[in-house]
């Protein structure tokens, strides 16, 4: 939707260029995912470095000579540090943000030490994988992900990430919460795939191309359903959302109608005007009735209507 909108705003007809930008934007989501995961690793390593240097001070205190190492010994943080999958993915995408901006790691570490999540964990006398996992999950969701300075850095680094940050953080929190104890000779943590499968990636390309290339045809489908609205008065985002939804109705037989409607109503609520979702829902509902009456809607598979 955003790529099609950008195309309209730039008055561009270079499909290949815009498609390349679309896939680059999606690929950048993986970079954001890796950057957020690597922050956990760098925070742990930074704390270990601090503890080691403090213990070697000439006038080290008793606490500095015998520090609480529960945080740096956290099993989940160490699994992330030792993950070949994560290391390879970061090397492949040349992710080294925190090596060049370690001041953000120090800021995060300072906020972590002040948090109740950290203090309660460090004071706890229990020692289990479940406790370590819950701590890291809560630490990420309650302290790291909402950090304003981190958000500002990510926004400045790549503007397209503004919409991706919540999705990436939700995925990471889910992965952390599902981690299990390491088994011998088995990979402890695997980087999530960007696409579920090749069909997933093909869908992105097909939906983009079919919506752009059939722009006029798709527009005609709903113009007659809005007699009280001049074409110019329909918000551009709303028009794009309608075209994409209609494209799925007519050109993607395997996608259930309800799935299409729900997806685009959510997009409308997020990106368009407060009343857009009601407007769009009314048009799509009328279109479905007409398509069903004229046998224009062809969906394959069970439960797709």
UniProtKB/TrEMBL annotation:
Gene3D superfamilies: NusB-like
One Pfam family of this chain: NusB
InterPro entries: NusB-like_sf, NusB_fam, NusB_RsmB_TIM44
NusB/RsmB/TIM44 domain mapped to chain residues: 170-289
Superkingdom to which the source organism belongs: Bacteria
Keyword set, alphabetical order: RNA-binding, Transcription, Transcription antitermination, Transcription regulation
Family as reported in the entry's similarity comment: Belongs to the NusB family.
Protein name: Transcription antitermination factor NusB
Species of origin: Flavobacterium suzhouense
């Amino acid at each position: 939707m955003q790529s099609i909108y950008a195309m309209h705003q730039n008055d561009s007809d270079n499909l290949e260029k815009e498609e390349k930008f679309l896939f680059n934007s999606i690929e950048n989501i993986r970079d954001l995912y890796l950057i957020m995961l690597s922050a956990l690793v760098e925070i742990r390593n930074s704390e270990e470095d601090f503890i080691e240097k403090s213990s070697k001070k000439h006038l080290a205190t008793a606490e500095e000579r015998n520090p609480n190492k529960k945080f740096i010994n956290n099993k989940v943080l160490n699994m992330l540090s030792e993950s070949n999958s994560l290391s390879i993915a970061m090397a492949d995408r040349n992710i080294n943000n925190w090596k060049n901006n370690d001041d953000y790691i120090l800021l995060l570490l300072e906020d972590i030490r002040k948090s109740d999540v950290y203090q309660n964990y460090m004071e706890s006398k229990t020692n289990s994988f479940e406790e370590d996992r819950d701590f890291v999950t809560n630490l990420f969701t309650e302290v790291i992900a909402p950090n304003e300075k981190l958000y500002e850095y990510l926004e400045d680094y790549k503007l397209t990430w503004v919409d991706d940050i919540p999705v990436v953080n939700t995925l990471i929190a889910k992965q952390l919460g599902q981690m299990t104890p390491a088994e011998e000779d088995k990979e402890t943590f695997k980087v999530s795939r960007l696409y579920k499968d090749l069909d997933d990636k093909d869908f992105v390309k097909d939906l983009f191309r079919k919506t752009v290339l059939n722009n006029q045809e798709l527009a005609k489908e709903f113009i007659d359903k809005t007699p009280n609205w001049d074409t110019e008065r329909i918000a551009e985002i709303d028009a794009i959302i309608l075209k994409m939804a209609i494209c799925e109705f007519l050109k993607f037989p395997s996608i259930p109608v309800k799935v299409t409607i729900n997806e685009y109503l959510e997009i409308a609520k997020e990106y368009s005007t407060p009343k857009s979702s009601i407007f769009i829902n009314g048009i799509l509902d009328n279109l479905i009735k007409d398509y069903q009456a004229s046998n224009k809607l062809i969906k394959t598979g069970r439960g797709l209507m």
